[in-house]
Amino acid sequence: LFIEQLRDLSLEDGRAYIQEHIAELSDHAAIAYLLTDEALRLLYSPFISLKLAELLIFFGEYVHHTSSHALGLKAKGDALMMIGHHQAALDALDAAGEEFKLLGDEGNWARSRISWIVSAVWLGRVEEALQAAAQAREVFLRRGENFWVCSIDHNTAIICEHIGRYQEALQLYESMRAIYPTIKDQSEKTLQLYTAIAEMNQANILDLLGKFEQAYNLHRQAQASFIALGETYLTVYAEVNLADLDYTQGFYGSALRRYYQARDRFIQGNINDPLFLAILKLEIANCLVKLNRAQEACLMSEEAVKAYRQVGISLSTGNALRVHASALIASGRFEEALTVLYEAQTLFSGSGIEHYTSTTRLQQAELLLVMGSTTAAYDTARSIKKHCEVQGLVAYAVRAGLVMSSALLEMSQELSLEQEKRTALLQEAEMLCKRTIAEARQHNLQEMIYKGYYLLGRLFVRQDNPERAARQYRAAIAQIERILNDLVYDLSPSFLRSTWIVYEEMIALCLQQSQVEQAFSYLERARSMTLRQYLNKSSALREKSGGEQQGTVALSISETSSAQLLRIQKELKNWQEKYRDYSVILTDIDTSVSPTVDRAIIQAEMKRCEAEISQLFERLYLYESGTTLNTYTRKHAPHQVKQLDLVRLRQRLSPDQLLLTYFLYKGKLIIFAATTKELVTHEITDGLEQLERLLPLLHAHLDPRGWSASRNPASEVVRRLLTRLYNILVRPVANLLPSPSGLLTIVPYGPLHKLPFHALYDGSRFLIENFQINHLPASSLLLHFDSDESRLHHRSGDTSVAGTRPLVFGYSDSGHLQRVKDEAQTIASLLNGACFLEGEATIARLIEQAPGSPIIHLA
Known about the structure:
The chain is mainly alpha-helical. Among the domains are: about 1-105; about 395-550, Tetratricopeptide repeat domain (Serine Threonine Protein Phosphatase 5, Tetratricopeptide repeat, Alpha Horseshoe); about 555-585 and about 600-625; about 645-795; about 800-859. Helix 9 packs antiparallel against helix 10 (about 165-180). The longest helix is centred in the middle third of the chain and has 35 residues, at about 515-550.
């Protein structure tokens, strides 16, 4: 009751209450520890904790009890540290420490150092903090207080992480995990909890070092402990850590699943933390955009914006609005996105965070360009460029220059323009673009370099200069492939889409110039680009597996880059959280609880957060623009782009084999047909229009869910559709088809990936009845087969494998792909095949069983 009264009363009324009931408070030591424990328990309600600390100081002075006074000063320092009053916290903790020394109370002196070292680091006194931590640790060791040894080690590890001494931090976490099981004066549950927290923190360090597999396993181990202990909030936090790890490595599907699991746990656990839930929703929205699920992303980001608006933190709301705008843009809702960006700009303009303001205005300019408001886009970009040049924000200035050049290019296409004005606009755009490329090269802005070359190529196309256009497109593609080879950041779908356009333009230009082989070569390079992320990761995993067997693991370029990116992202997230915390503290500030509370100090801490966020935001932007943050030699050797060897490719084909590769561009369907002797093309001008009409009809007629039993579409209707598709896709090259039972290799494009080519009908027979058919994602994969492998297609005539059963594999990813098991078992039953499911469906078994199998089905 006494504690409840003091907690609810004001500071002055609390002092009066102590004076009135002083006779009842004769056990000074007991009262001191009651108030100390309550202040510590309420540390995350810092103003209440601070008020209790002030009352404990008053109590110690009033009854002349030095220990109470010292404990009050310590509790005051702890609370002041929580609200960013770091110098005042040090003053209070130093005063407490002196009093504890006079009392000979070295245990409480050491405990007073726990918050002291946090505030000291914040004020830049890192070495002093480490020395104080070491002294406190010695005291705890001498007294046999191993729990407090771990507490001081925990804070020391955080300091080491903060200053980049990651190995020391790892050693401290290892030490904590070894000590906790030996402690006897704490409950088993408490020790399990703190061990799991140490595991999670250690995993976070391993994340930053790029040791992702070790980090993943430790995160899972910590999460299992949190689940067993019923610690819902920490369980959710661990799930988010795992999701962040997946997202950083480009595993967006897995990351999305984990973010959803974290959200579901959060809601089911009735956790009251709307800001954390809003952050989760933004992470989910980012994943959905990466996975081209823009409509879902819009709904999720809109919910996050609503939550941030209720809290009223301008920086967080503005950031949520930017994510929401990206989702709206991805879904084609440009007008709404523009309105959202203007609101975000208004919020950022008062925050003092220049980088957020600049990038938001750039998004506006780019969006205006897409919407056809070229003059507004040019004027906005021009204003940003001038401002950013003055501020030294090079990356933003370069990006604005590209928007200006693009706007001038679009302006030059207005039909009402006189030729002289048109020429002047194109020349201005060309000069500006060349200057922008030079700036991008000077500052190693890799993504801006390729975009500049691509834009310059488009300018030369508009000037009817195909030779110069091709030269610029080649430079853009060389730069794209340099980025891919360096693997500076993950190959997100948005990056692949934007770079694919460059290849498409180059292919079209080659076809216009009747350079068929070059067009085919660029098409194959574009296809191969989408495979690189998987191939690079597979290679890295194989190398890592081999390295572990030998006891030495070297980090790949991909892992190192991902780790560096993760460090920046985590640091940015930490500073954003600090900013939010200070915003909440400033909103809830109560100067009546202590004369030490000063609004100006909290505002100064927010300004510091703004400065740090600006710097990190710029580093992240530069990193994602392709700038290597490590030491970079600008005078590098010219990048040699490897051309597809068409001679070798045709040599890989059997004499009775036809390779059909498809390409769609600006409504046209291009068929590349290759045999051992030649490569020819056939163009269907309205091919895309025909496909867009026929393919949905075919899929609708093939889907039994859309028809009742009595109205099931007649097979004649389906056959007519398949015949029309055959006439578009195969008949134009019918004279090159192999003989019956020959091999037809098909490389689809775009919507054709969903077409069952085997079922195409020539009027009397299905394609599969005439030829052996296989599909490849890229023709260039034929170069990876040796000559013996390329002839395995003709197995039907090989008596050595007669009687070999079909092979069926099914893997559901722990049940996440729900129908996989049914599919595999059904196919195996129909084909009388060997079926391997889940843990049995391994790569090793596939390699072992595949030779000689007439059919291999992977589910």
